Input
Amino acid sequence: MTTRRFAWLGTLVGTVVVLSVVACQTEGRRSGAGALTPPFLDTPVAARPADSAALVERGRALYAENCAQCHGESGAGDGFGAPFLVPPPRDLVAAEYKFRTTSSGGLPTDEDLFRIISRGANGTGMPPWQHLLGDDDRWALVEYVKTLSPKFERWPERTAMPLTEPPAERGDPTRGGAVYTKMQCAQCHGADGRGTGPTALTQKDSKGRFVNTRDFTSPGTFRTGWTEREIVRTLETGMNGVPMPSYAQAMTAAEKYDLAAYIMSMAAPGSGDQKRSAARSMAGVGRPDRVIALREHKWQYEPAEIRIKAGDVVRVEFSVTDNGLGAGHGFAIDGYDQEVFINGAMVGAPQSVTFRIDRPGRYKYYCATQCSTTELHPRMNGVLIVE
Output
C-alpha cells in the first residue's frame, strides 16, 4: 500500500503542476490569479490550533504515515523513496529551507512551513497536502517537523523580512535584461535562461551534491509559483543550502521587478523545445575510434550490454523513443559520471558523448535523468565491459 501511495502522489504532483501552468494566464503572472495551485505567498494560512503535546503527537503519527517514506524516520531526507527523487527530499534535521519569507540563512516562520506543506513544491516529489490533510493536521505536522531539528529550539522567534512590494510601474523586461547581465545571472542560468551557464555543472549543495540551476524557460519548474512576487521573494531571501544567494541589498525595487519580468519573458512561446538538455564529454580525448548507437525503448537500454577495448575513444550516440515524465532520458557511466553524462535527451533530439576508459573492467551505465517516479527509472541501466 505504501509503495502504491508513493507512486500515486508522484502522479498527483505532476498533474497539479501541469494544470497550474496551463491555467496561469498572462495577466495573472503578477498575482498568480488563475492558477489552480496558488503561489507560495498567496497560499492561505489557516487558523492555528492551540499548542499542546497532543498536537505534536498527532503530527508524529501523520509524519510516520505520510512523510517518512521520503524524508526518512528521523527527518534526514533518507526515506526509501529518496533515491528515486530529483531533487532529493528536504533534510529536515539540517533545516536548510529554500522557501521562506525570512532573511538569507534564517529558519522559516511557522506560517512558511504551513504554506509549503499545504501547496507542495512544483516539479518535485512534494505534493500539495492541502488536498489530502485538514488544516489542523497540517499544523500538527508543522509542530512535529520543528522537533526534528535542534535549530528551531535555539531560535524559537522567527520573523518574516519586509519583502519588496511591486512598484507602481510594471516591471520592464528590456531593462530587466540589463539587470540580468549586471548581476551575472548568465554564469549559472545561461544567456538563454535554460540553466546551462558556464558554472552550472559545478554547482553543489551544502552536502556536496551537484544541483541543477533553474531553467527559466520552463514555468512548471518554478518551485513556488511562476509569478513576479515569487521571483522577487527568491531574489531577496536566497535559497538556503544551495548556491543561490540573496540579492536583497544588491538591487533597487525597480531592478528586482524588471529582472523578474525579464526572467518570465524567457518562457514565452518559442520553438517548442523548452526542456533542459545537456551533454558532457570527456575533455581532450580526440576523435572517436568507435561509434555506438544506443537507444532507450520502454525504459530500457538497447543494447543492455556494450563491449569496448581499453584505451579506445568511444562516442555513444543516444536516442530515445519516449520522453519519460517529460524530462526525457539520460546516460552516465558509474565512476565517470562527472566527466561523461547526458541529461534530457528527447524524442527527435538525440545526444552524444565521447569518452575513453583505460582500465579494463565492468562498469554500469544508467539513466542520469529522473524519467519516472515508479520502478521504471531504476530499471534503466546496462553494463559496459572494457576489455
Notes: DSSP finds eleven helices and ten strands in the chain. Residues 173-265 form a domain with the Cytochrome Bc1 Complex; Chain D, domain 2 fold (CATH 1.10.760.10).
